[in-house]
# Entry
Amino acid sequence: MGSTAEEFITTSEDKAFDLDHRRIINYNIGKYDAAVDNGLSRMVNLENAKRKGHAIKWKVMENLDKYMPEFEANFQKNGGKVIWANDAAEANREILNILQKAGVKTVVKSKSMVTEEIELNEFLEHHHIESLETDLGEYIVQLLGQKPYHIVTPAMHLSKEDIAKLFNERFGTPIDATPEQLTQKARELLREKYLQADAGITGANFIIADTGSIAISENEGNARLTTSFPKIQITVVGIEKLIPSIADLDLFWPMLATHGTGQNLTVYNTILSGPRKAEETDGPEEMYVVLLDNGRTNLLAQKEQRQALYCIRCGACLNACPVYKNIGGHTYETTYSGPIGSIITPHMAGMEKFKHLSYASSLCGKCTEVCPVKIDIHKMLLLNRRDAVSERLVTTKEKWGWAMWKKGMLSRKMMDFFSGKTKNFMMRRFFKKSWGHFREMPKVAAKSFSQAWKEQNGIKD
# Structure
């Protein structure tokens, strides 16, 4: 088996020339673009909102050691329990301990990328605990045995015909069923599961320091059911999701909804501050929040690149990226795909294994332009490339090749030493397979610019 980078190149080529995939993605992202353009047009001062969001997240990341204990203390006051997990293995182990102690056999889950990151479903299945996704998109990709394709829209790569075929094979629904009929069937199948489940597991869009609360945004109501019926609720969340105050939701909720789906506000927005109180009629008897590091502090330690942790997971940069729109989400082989995944994954999962993602960009800057918290994404990509070189993670061939290129480009004498014919030969000899695989090789002029300039202006050496 080849390296992750080699697999990425091979899969990217396949996907880029898959016309059906291109058709589906262009259609779905086209609908997203129209909705978001409409949503953003209703914001009075978008640039000011972005700057404010950036400033708040900067403040949190610079003072994480203050805000995290504040959240923990306030959540515990409300009867909740906080678990700190250094990595995926520790998070999974702690969750399993809670479930086994309570004799849990069935778990319902709402949409959560962080549980995808720690591969919780596979871990629980290995320990004979059923873990069922209740978000419709997540439920569909779970039925297919796939990973989510997109941070916000897990089944973006599937057409309604693909989903109708899946439901026909699994549940006997009509092969020409409408999206509304398919949704109704999923609702019938899942509703009973909420009542049967022993525990509910969610992620969180934000964790709030001053009230000790978690905030969840969704459009289907499945997260609210997941947190209401089961006796045990576990929220798994990355430490970067922290915001200082509940008042900050006034900014972050609309920004997340508008950049994520084009809505003014997501349909269901829930704030949970602990288990059910004696006078309350619903909610869990026990509530846990698992605060996950899993490489985030590695990124926090990078002063120039820690702003990548400001991300609120709206998915806007994925939809804007020309590379993502051609090669799709699964090609990245990471939980977080697209531009944001390319800048955080090398720090969270290893630069050596994932440095290639920082090169999978046109550096057009569209990702930075659309980011609701003004993360300088394309600059982060360049910084990751720099780090890969400084950590000597590039091949000797690449290192010497760029060294020779630099030396030649900095010397006019050396540039003019070789004729255009020689340069064209070298281009064909060394770049035909890489650069010229799908491109017409550029043709170098017979004379250099300086030679042509001297001749035109009658200048002699």
User: Anything to note?
Assistant: The beta strands are 81-85, 106-109, 130-133, 199-202, 206-208, 213-218, 232-238, 242-243, 268-272, 286-292. The longest strand covers residues 232-238. The two ends are 56 Å apart (CA to CA). The mean pLDDT is 93.
